[in-house]
């Protein structure tokens, strides 16, 4: 019997739609990634080893664990760990091309970067998630040690192993992703609401673009099973 391809297709769609959480904006007329801020751009004196650092992006949030001495461990999609063992190449700042290929190949790495390279000019929130876990917060040293043990190549999945799963495991003992859950629920609500016809069509069109469906494929063939799975 053939496996149902709809859940896998929907998972891939979600991964590509949420890629915006990591992609860095390019300046007008630029052919490469924007340079990171100067080393003294952030005041790291208020950060403690084991803290969870959050950087709000346009649509989502990027997470990391502060290790001390201006170092942050964070999980990022990256194609290089799957094709080379050269640490010098891997440790270079991840470009958008490397990131996108990493998402497609479902490969990533838990890497250690400076605060500047991690935040890339964004504002930083510290331990903002602690209020959601109450008495589940582990000791700061335990959180940092967990992060350090996971440094290196790893599999990537938006639904099961993204940057938020990484930090919640390290600091709270359980890998969860609230923003992924919220995004999935929002998509389900759009599809279930019959008044949101335009939004449902846009989601379906996004699935065609992201999944690379051939133009000859009819819309009902893609929309119906995808919508039924998401609404279930």
From TrEMBL:
Gene that encodes it: Lrat
GO MF term list: phosphatidylcholine-retinol O-acyltransferase activity
Membrane protein topology class: Single-pass membrane protein
PROSITE patterns hit by this protein: LRAT
Source superkingdom: Eukaryota
Every LRAT domain range: 52-179
Native species: Prunella himalayana
Family label: Belongs to the H-rev107 family.
Keyword tags: Acyltransferase, Cytoplasm, Endoplasmic reticulum, Endosome, Lipid metabolism, Membrane, Sensory transduction, Signal, Transferase, Transmembrane, Transmembrane helix, Vision
GO biological process, one term: retinol metabolic process
Active site: 163
GO (cellular component) term, any one: rough endoplasmic reticulum
Transmembrane portions of the chain: 197-230
KW Lipid metabolism (keyword) present: yes
Entry EC number(s): 2.3.1.135
Catalytic activity: all-trans-retinol--[retinol-binding protein] + a 1,2-diacyl-sn-glycero-3-phosphocholine = apo--[retinol-binding protein] + an all-trans-retinyl ester + a 2-acyl-sn-glycero-3-phosphocholine; all-trans-retinol--[retinol-binding protein] + 1,2-dihexadecanoyl-sn-glycero-3-phosphocholine = apo--[retinol-binding protein] + all-trans-retinyl hexadecanoate + 2-hexadecanoyl-sn-glycero-3-phosphocholine; 1,2-didodecanoyl-sn-glycero-3-phosphocholine + all-trans-retinol--[retinol-binding protein] = 2-dodecanoyl-sn-glycero-3-phosphocholine + all-trans-retinyl dodecanoate + apo--[retinol-binding protein]; 1,2-dioctanoyl-sn-glycero-3-phosphocholine + all-trans-retinol--[retinol-binding protein] = 2-octanoyl-sn-glycero-3-phosphocholine + all-trans-retinyl octanoate + apo--[retinol-binding protein]
The protein's enzyme class: transferase
Known function: Transfers the acyl group from the sn-1 position of phosphatidylcholine to all-trans retinol, producing all-trans retinyl esters. Retinyl esters are storage forms of vitamin A. LRAT plays a critical role in vision. It provides the all-trans retinyl ester substrates for the isomerohydrolase which processes the esters into 11-cis-retinol in the retinal pigment epithelium; due to a membrane-associated alcohol dehydrogenase, 11 cis-retinol is oxidized and converted into 11-cis-retinaldehyde which is the chromophore for rhodopsin and the cone photopigments.
Signal peptide: 1-28
Stored InterPro entries: LRAT, LRAT_dom
Name assigned to this protein: Lecithin retinol acyltransferase
Protein's cellular compartments: Cytoplasm, Perinuclear region; Endoplasmic reticulum membrane; Late endosome; Rough endoplasmic reticulum
Record flagged with keyword Transmembrane: yes
Pathway: Cofactor metabolism; retinol metabolism
